Amino acid sequence: MSFSTSQKQLPIQKQLKSMTLNAVSVGYEGQPIVKQASFELKEGQIGCLLGPSGCGKSTLLRALAGFETLMTGEIRVDGELIASEDRHVNPEDRHIGMVFQDIALFPHLSITENIAFGLSAWPKSDAQERVSYLLNLVGLSGFESRYPHSLSGGQQQRVALARAMAPKPKLLLMDEPFSGLDAKLREELVPDIRDILKHEKMAAILVTHDQMEAFAMADQVSVMSAGEIHQTGTPYNIYHDPETRFVAEFIGHGDFLTATVCGANCVHSDLGTIRGDLDHGFEANQEVDLLVRPDDILHDDDSEFVGMIESKFFRGSHFLYRVKLSSGKIVFCFASSHHDHAVGQEIGLSVHLDHLVMFPR
Ligand SMILES: Nc1ncnc2c1ncn2[C@@H]1O[C@H](COP(=O)(O)OP(=O)(O)OP(=O)(O)O)[C@@H](O)[C@H]1O
Question: Which stretches make up the ABC transporter domain (predicted)?
Fold first, then answer.
């Protein structure tokens, strides 16, 4: 998406410089749901809370918005304490915008009126200018006097985004905003919305259980399980350098090979001796589980290590083979779709890893 719009900067809110969560616990009826959550979001960054259903993502987002009080810990925005056990700044005073899954546009208001909803305190001409700027930004110029029911789901979500961004909040919170949309629309809308937020230099936090959405949208992802943040990092880091077993298994497809440490950067495994490029810090002869992803295991006719294809999945440009090793371990392996092997056939396998991700057994 390209942006040709310009708008004078209205001095409503200063942009967020940083938001820090320090050991935040939140719960209901005295029971903690989110436990000891910590991370920092910097100016213009898009963060993401990623985790399975029920892990506490929305609860944490609601605490950021001010709809839940903290049991322990603190939240600071630009150094100012906005939430702790003893302090609770009300939602309307946090200058935070929200976009939800169920869109929730006002059906009886036009698109212009929807977007202008939070601008009642603005001078009329500034509000008009802001609305037309945002309509242009979200690609909906010409829709000013239409009503929500006459827009597609994707268009409605763009209006919801424009409405939330209109008062220039310091931070935009988005709770599963794309989950009601079909896959194709989501694929188009996610990068567009990222571009719009970046163009506005607006910090945001997305809640999702969909890692592809998280990767496409976020600069920084916090992976949650059972109320705890296991790791916060770039999408690249959490995929390639998971710090816990949960992150290794939840992000991408991960299998574990049984292995024995044989040196500072090497292990013996069912698929031979594997060397990494960093010292892994494990003791010699220690038994470990070595993370291997389907793209780490290559179909290799010259390899002495073989596995039997148990099932296969055609993915267009490649096959994903589910392969049983002689030890009985199951691993997944990508191969070009020109390598079309039958279920039951044995194929040679070799492992190619840059660095070894291991967990003690
Ligand atoms: N108002 C509430 N009162 C009591 N328990 C609640 C309340 N809201 C949520 N919970 C519980 O807190 C836990 C976490 O819910 P939450 O909605 O934060 O998870 P989530 O990760 O956002 O899940 P999902 O992806 O399914 O929306 C769940 O067990 C839920 O039942």
Answer: 16-251
Q: How many CA atoms lie within 13 A of 49 on its CB side?
A: 31
- Which of the 8 DSSP states describes residue 209? S
- Bridge-based pairing of strands 171-175 and 96-100 is parallel
Q: Is the pLDDT of residue 353 over 70?
A: yes
Say whether pLDDT at 5 is over 80: no
Please give the distance, rounded to the nearest whole angstrom, from the Cα atom of residue 59 to the centre of ligand 1.
Answer: 6
pTM for the complete prediction? 0.87
- Residue of the nearest CA to atom 8 in ligand 1? 59
Burial of 276 (0-12, 13-18, 19+ CB in 10 A): middle
Q: How far apart are CA 181 and CA 188, in angstroms?
A: 11
Ligand 1 atom nearest 55 alpha carbon: 21
Distance 227 CA to ligand 1 centre (A): 10
More confident site: 239 or 280: 239
CB 233, CB 221: distance < 8 Å: yes
CA proximity to 62, closest of 233, 223, 205, 214: 205
| ipTM entry | 0.95
